[in-house]
Amino acid sequence: MTFEIFTFSFMHRAIISGIAIAILCSVVGLFLVLRRYSLFGDAIAHSSFGGIALGLMAGIYPLWTAYGVSIVSALIMTRIKDKFNISGDASIAVLLSSGIAVGLVIIGLSGGFTLDIFSFLFGSILLVSVNDTILILSLTGIILIVILLLYRQLLYSTFNEEQAKVSGIPVEKINYLIVFMAGITVVTSIQLVGVLLISALFVIPNVTAIMYGKGFKQTAIISMSFSIFSVVAGILISYIFDITPAGTIVLFAIGIFACTMGIKSAGLLSRHN
Amino acid sequence: MLKVVEIDHLTIEYPDVKAIDDVSFTVNQGDFLGIIGPNGAGKSTLFASMLSLNTKYKGTIKFFGTDIRKSKNYLKEIGYVPQKPIFEKNFPATVNDVVKMGLQKESDENKIDEILQQLWIHELSERRIGELSGGQQQRVFIAKALVNNPKVLILDEPVTGIDQQSIDLFYSILKELNSKQNITIIWSSHDLDAVNKLANHVACLNRTLFFHGESDDFFENDELVKQYSEASMQEHMHHH
Fold this sequence. Notes:
The complex is a heterodimer. Chain A is mainly alpha-helical.
């Protein structure tokens, strides 16, 4: 039974997609966490709920409408935040609740489609198709290339916006780029952990890795490793014990975080902070 | 003499107050200009405009003969060290990472080692920036400002809250950069003794410009010195 699961092609797709999403969420999430924007992923995920409902009602593949709605609403919200000087946490609350509200109204209007909605709320990684896997791998590749090409600009504007501006970095454009990449990452990850648990993949491996890593690249690699481990272990264990993969993945991530806190409290990780 | 900065009739108005009122002065290549003035005199506001962080001003600011409203290219020639660099305390960046942020071209990486050695922070290169003392952090930020070979260094009260030993080292580094590498330095400070020792030009700012000229001319004018000593003393008390 234990080794048999490695022979299923749906398991191959789940693990390959899961690893790609783990890497993507770690890297994009690290920029969000360091910008004190940890819950932004959550807000985008909730706004995607409106997009998913819209797709289901219109008979369009729900993830396409989710991409559109999430990215557009995240960019608009960022613009409103900058223009009207609304704080980051308040703008997250507005984005989060409006997505759910729109989704609920659409579901109500169309008489409900509970089953479909559930797979988006809680993820369905074991059901990813070959096409989904190709899409996930392609988007991961594109976003990683963009991050590598603009590494200095992204890092510098995250570290200190004012100084980055003085060095001639177009900070506002970089901010919009991060929001755009976060939108794509969130919707891509919905299949793995669902709308409700996405922020866990953005935040938990990163806050854990920050306690270990010295430099930025080292921290990103540690975060990716924790994330990949949580995803792969979560998928396998959940299959063996027939429990939900999303919850199991996030519990593994929380487990690593808790162990790190324990190690730190015992004074074995006192170098930083 | 090459004019590095030309500020002409600069006025910056906030809704209820004029932060800068009709200020004009020129900085030539190789000048070491100390800008002095009490708290709220407009020093940081002046710098924000010079660095294009604030674009709502009247008058013109030129760097290397070009109006900064027309092109931001001049920023590549400037190293800026803020009063107190603000960053997330737990930010996972080593000293090396931070200095590298200032580097415009990846190919210049050898330059990082050179600068770190010059500023006596070579041994700290793999330490996290948040772990260092205020004085060490400030040296890292100077290294970041210098790594791109700037022609001009702009420093906004860069020694606030730093121990005396670090301040002395910092000043000797500035002196060397100016005299040996001919880097133009524009530096705001409330330490008149340090300005007297280091700067060759002085500007007294208190919303408007009260004096701008050679350092010797300023320090020979007892009345001006007395007036600004008192202002800076008050500021010193305020800081404590």
